[in-house]
Structures are given as C-alpha cells and as structure tokens.
Amino acid sequence: MQLFLDGSEIDKIIEYNNIGILDGITTNPSIILKSGKNVFEVIAEITKIVKGSVSVEVSATDREEMYLQGKKLSAIAENVTVKLPITWEGLAACKRLSDEGTSVNMTLCFSSSQALLAAKAKASFVSPFIGRLDDSNQDGANLISEIKKIYINYGFNTKILAASIRTINHVKECASIGADVATIPVNVFDKLIKHPLTDSGLKQFTNDWNKTGQSIL
Ligand code: G3P
Fold this sequence. Notes:
Layout (H helix, E strand, L loop, with lengths): L1 E5 L3 H10 L4 E3 L2 H7 L3 H11 L4 E4 L5 H12 L5 E6 L2 H12 L4 E6 L2 H9 L4 E4 L1 H6 L4 H15 L4 E4 L5 H10 L3 E4 L1 H4 L6 H17 L5
Parallel strand pairs: 1-2, 1-8, 2-3, 3-4, 4-5, 5-6, 6-7, 7-8
C-alpha cells in the first residue's frame, strides 16, 4: 500500500520523505487555507520535495472551468494530480483531462456507484472519504471493500486512495482490505510507528547492553 501525507506541512513532508516511506501528497482547499500560502507556491514547493503524485484541487464547479483550472494546476509540475469533485461536471472534466494524459483524483467519494463512474471516466485515483462516513455512522471501510470488488471484477486501473483517515485502525483496515493508497494526516502519520511495548522493550535492551560494558563500533 502506498502511503501519502494528507497535508502541506513541509517539515513533516521532508522528514518522512528522507526516511523513504512517503509515496505522495494530497491537499484540498481546506489544507491550502490552513497552510496560509498561495496554492501555486505551496504545490511547487511540495512537488520539488516529493517525486510521487501530489494532488491539488480545483475551485471550479462547472466542467469547462474545471478543465481550464486543471490544465493550469497540472502545469506546475509533472507529478501534479488534479483533484476534481465527483459530480457530473467533475466526471466530464475528468474524462477530458485523463484523455489528454493528465492525472486526475476524483474526490469527495461516498458511494461505490460514484467510484464506478470515476473509473469509467479514467480517473487515476478515486478518494473515498472513510472518516466522514464513520462520522455519519456509516461504514467507511466497507466502502473500500465494495470499490475493491467492483474494480477487480472489471479490471479498472483507477487506484483506490483511502482518504479522510482518522485513526491508525483506519490505516490497518485499508491495508487489510487492499486499498492502493492511504492518505494520512500528520497527527495519525506520527502515531503509526508508536507502541508502548516497543519503547519499554528498547529501554530494557539499552540498559542491559550498557551493563555488558561492550561496544560495537
Ligand atoms: O483530503 C481529503 C480528505 O482526506 C479530507 O479529510 O479529515 O477533512 O475528512 P477530512
């Protein structure tokens, strides 16, 4: 499973990218607002750091302006993926941009019928928002399973990019089901490595090693 960061925190992007585990980035208008930066500047900065897909969302809601904005955003860098909302207007712009070779991420996906249409429109990615479904007492992980089954049935190439990740358990569920990507906010990403038994075990090993009086280097 590919791991994307869902955010624009440059320090964290550099940290995880330097470790070699960061496969891409997703942003959305709320993330751009939170960054306090110009969208073209922050995406140009991120695409210089991360070589994988970097999603940036259009602001338009009609197909023609979505297309024009998509062309302008994709010109920032070759690894830009254009995010479009799953509406009929978004699907029309997706098919036109995809046919021209632009990578498109169909976002705000909350049903398998929407995901089916995203694949038909040749989207590179579809973003089911599992956290928001859970927030409304629906089953976000089940949507990932439904989409996975449909995409396997028909050999669709669109990648399932699990989004709206709220917990480590969401990441585990997405990996177990077989999502292609999980895009993870910093507050969850930081926790992925944490376990108290690892910390206590390492402390014990370190203490016991120090008592041996030996050195390796
Ligand atoms: O970026 C898309 C998605 O991850 C948004 O998540 O937490 O606003 O539901 P959230």
